Amino acid sequence: MRILLVGATGTLGTAVHQELVERKHDVVTVSRTGGDLQYDVTDPAQVAELYQTVGQVDAVASAAGSVPFKPLAELTAQDHQAAFTGKVLSQVTLVKEGLAHVTPHGSFTLITGVLAREPIVTGAAASLANGAVEAFVRAAAIEIAPQRINAVSPTVFTESLDVYGDFFPGMKPVPLADVVRAYVRSIEGRQTGQVYEL
């Protein structure tokens, strides 16, 4: 398959890229500052340009999405907008613009996270964004068939506990390899409208 991988230079994107290449897929990598192509997917105009550059693909996988973390009382309207733009609008636009560029039985795989179902202190904006992405996936699935769409929703990575572990007290971490397998399941499988919780 020819796969467009967005957010390809981060921890998750790098691991997904490696696995997809090992599985003999042709992967086009995108990020703001690295990869095969440099685009900012929070800008709808750049997303449209990205697809014009890449052409037709069999799958789009997103491992990108940024949100602010602050106590609820300190979150501003700009913070909420940043969460929406950074994780929701960017991925929704990848799907909407991608419909004409993904093969008829191709797929979209988006990233959400545990905070959609297990909130933490300072994570309200992230919970809002993750919940919105998951709701969008379920709604889009019934409209875009035979194209497919799923989301991967992991908790904190085992490999990132030294940096982020304190923000997820008592939550079971997930090995990065398990998250990567969920991407493979979404891309190579046949399910749609699923949120793979890890």
Automatic annotation (TrEMBL):
Q: Which UniProt keywords apply?
A: Oxidoreductase
Pfam (any one) = adh_short_C2
Which InterPro entries does the entry mention?
Answer: NAD(P)-bd_dom_sf, SDR_DHRS6-like, SDR_fam
Q: Which residues form a coiled coil?
A: none
Highest taxon listed in the record's lineage: Bacteria
Signal peptide start-end: none
Q: Which family does it belong to?
A: Belongs to the short-chain dehydrogenases/reductases (SDR) family.
Q: Which NCBIfam families match?
A: PRK07578.1
Name of this chain's protein: Short chain dehydrogenase
